[in-house]
Design brief:
mainly beta
């Protein structure tokens, strides 16, 4: 309604920068969560959610500005010594400033001489700045943006719709094959 369109919205702080080597990060995920849908008749649907939130904390051991390897992680990511349980993939990773800095993407458990160690990875946020989005009529559309028009995530950060710190260091380019590319300027 008109009243809620002008209400202040607390935005999730997001950063285009990966976390700093040695810094602490916290990951959130929902492994072993289940959704059951029961359709009793044409007018009634019962949905049962069993959500199991999980938090994992660790320290950044490696930062891969472009990619970790050409086989599995061909994208900007970082490595953490935290346990990411299967099913946490896509969960948020926050840096020590409480900014969203990545998403959970993989985890491996190794047995070492002192017990178990973890080698987990998070994908960096900045490549998402090129993703096209279209706002629909029901969205809270800020002044200067139009519904039905396609915007990059970068455009929504630039106009303040999203709180993305460092977005001004994102730049777009064309690959030799003519496809669009995105990169983050490093300082």
């Amino acid at each position: 309604n008109d009243e809620t369109k002008h209400a202040a919205i607390k935005k999730l702080p997001i950063t285009v920068d990966p976390p700093v080597m040695g810094s602490e990060v916290t990951a959130l995920g929902y492994p072993e969560s289940k959704i059951q849908i029961f359709k009793n008749d044409s007018e009634m649907t019962h949905i049962m959610l069993n959500i199991k939130p999980t938090v994992s904390t660790g320290h950044v051991t490696e930062v891969h500005a472009s990619y970790r390897d050409l086989a599995m992680m061909r994208f900007p990511c970082f490595t953490i010594d935290a346990k990411f349980t299967a099913g946490m993939s896509g969960g948020a990773i926050f840096n020590d400033k409480k900014e969203l800095c990545g998403l959970v993407c993989s985890s491996f458990q190794e047995d070492d001489s002192q017990g178990k160690s973890y080698y987990s990875n998070g994908v960096s946020i900045w490549p998402s700045m090129i993703i096209p989005l279209s706002l629909i009529q029901d969205d809270c559309v800020p002044d200067g943006l139009e519904t039905g028009k396609t915007y990059k995530v970068f455009d929504l950060a630039r106009c303040g719709y999203l709180d993305v710190r460092g977005y001004e260091r994102i730049e777009f380019f064309k690959h030799e094959n003519g496809t669009d590319g995105v990169r983050r300027k490093h300082y």
